[in-house]
Amino acid sequence: MIRIPCPFCGERDHSEFTYGGDGSIVYPDLDAPISDWHDAVFLRENIRGVQTETWHHTSGCRMWLLVERDTMTHEILSVRPAHKGIRAAMENS
């Protein structure tokens, strides 16, 4: 069982969350060539080790989070809000 320390709700079971995918992907601009969109959507690395993932706290605060997790051990290394504005507000409070 994975326990995710939500910055808003505290530590919760992973069953309260929905996995959103690779959090390191930078999507292209809307007017970018279709080949750029193809690469961003379909070409993914299957990382063995530490990666950044997006998780949605669907049964809690409903916030999107960036979770740094080791895919080998499932150890959670860090959790932060995915939205830059909320992240900045939390850092300044």
Question: In words, what does this structure look like?
Answer:
- The protein is of the alpha+beta class.
- The chain has one domain (3-27, 34-92): Folate-binding fold, CATH 3.30.2270.10.
- The protein has helices spanning 34-42, 84-92, and strands spanning 3-6, 10-13, 18-22, 50-56, 64-70, 76-81.
- The strands form two sheets. A four-stranded antiparallel β-sheet has the order 3-4-5-6.
- It is globular, with a radius of gyration of 15 Å.
- The termini are far apart.
- The mean pLDDT is 92.
Per-chain topology:
Layout: E1 3-6, E2 10-13, E3 18-22, H1 34-42, E4 50-56, E5 64-70, E6 76-81, H2 84-92
Antiparallel strand pairs: 1-2, 3-4, 4-5, 5-6
How would you summarize this macromolecular structure in one to three sentences?
By secondary structure, the chain is α+β, with helices and mostly antiparallel strands. It has helices at residues 34-42, 84-92; strands at residues 3-6, 10-13, 18-22, 50-56, 64-70, 76-81. Strand 5 (64-70) and strand 6 form a beta hairpin.
